[in-house]
Amino acid sequence: MASDGRSSSENERGGLAAINELFDEASRPRGRNQGLISSSTIGLANRGRVLQVLFDLGPTSRAELARHVGVNRATISGIIQPLVDQGILVDGDPLPSKEGGGKPARPMWFAEDAAPICAVLLMHDGVQCCLVSLDGTIGVEVRAGFPPDADGVEALAQTIFDCVGRALSLAHRPPLGIGVAAGGMIDTDKGTIVAVNLAPLLSGLPLGAELARRFGLTTRVDHHPRALLVGDRWFGIGRGRRNFAVIYTGEVLGGALLLDGHLYRGPAGAGGELGHTFVQVDGMTCRCGRRGCWETIATLGWLRREAGQAGLPAAQALDSRGLVGLAQAGVASAAELLDRYARNVAVGIANLQQTMAPNFIVLHGDVVGGGPRLLDAINAHVRELVPWRPGGDIELVMGDLEDRAALRGAAGLVLSELLHFTL
Predict the structure, then answer these.
(1) Is the pLDDT of residue 34 over 60?
(2) How far apart are CA 260 and CA 237, in angstroms?
(3) What pLDDT is attached to residue 215?
(4) Greatest CA separation found in the chain?
(5) N or C: which end of the chain has fewer CB within 10 A?
(6) Rounded to the nearest 5 degrees, what angle is found at the Cα of 411, between the Cα atoms of 138 and 421?
(7) DSSP per-residue codes, 71-115
(8) What is the mean pLDDT of residues 377-391?
(9) Which structural domains are found in the chain, ordered by start?
């Protein structure tokens, strides 16, 4: 029995009703000509604003939330208490008073046992699903590889649906929705995969609509690098920032931008294809069919090809971690190749900095395995290529090698809609 006299099942139904109310509002069409905010929407917008501040600050007392939002504590309690009653937020353990007196503050945070979000990572070789709590904790994980002999989209799609179904069946409460981070170009208006260079059979799959139809849950689908950025924005190193970028390197190269607090997508999600910006006129042919894309000189394909030509050992399986290890061991040509690779990565970052000046750039994927030595080399080349920085210094940091940020970000896509966050 809950402390307010209601049963836990009643509280859970109340919590789901509140979630459904938020989703009903989030699913309404949005555009520039919507008109004024209705009185029924103001409360949801205020709730979203408070929760957004809570995400930015981390576990925070009601009094501290009130100070940051600029309202009195009674107003904050009016917004927060229903979410506590519904099992979405929880009061933490009392903190010692800084002044040595008064009632100890209790930091608010998201309940560990609140309804989770199903996060899906869809890459060229398979699918990974997990359940993510509202505080970004990754729980149940399910993986499945794509059949190597698949000759049609049906087999690949069924692999995705089976993996999602298995993850959902393990949820302790009905999940709030499904968020998908997918490699390749995504039509974010329709939730459709436009093109996947490394798994072309999936091109054209209306994944979002099909997942929603099969499982009856609100679904959001976005480009893998944008999910990385959302994961960093809500749960990681980008928390509280209004401007930053992420760069992902591996078999492919991609990136995403947060500008003045908004994730840049472009029309139907066509923007932000950083891997296909030009860095070499008449350079190598890219998978996209054009020449000289950044992706042609700053991915594992380029690195392994150059390693083979240099006679480095195990060149066809080499990655950034292995290259740094060879360089540290004094293997001939390894240090020179490492510096060239760092410069190739830096060229695209320099173009991005000169164009949008995000100033704070998080590197994900393979380059993270190169550790401080590779980061220092990339950083040195960026500073050489961008000598004038009137908008402030450039900070490069290492992010995530294992795509955990992408899974959290996939959940964050749903969370941003659900809680009326600005994104």
Answers:
(1) no
(2) 17
(3) 97
(4) 73
(5) N
(6) 130
(7) S-HHHHHHHHHHHHHTTSEEE-PPPPPTTS-SPPP--EEE-TTS-
(8) 93
(9) 8-28+37-110 (1.10.10.10), 117-230+406-418 (3.30.420.40), 240-398 (3.30.420.40)
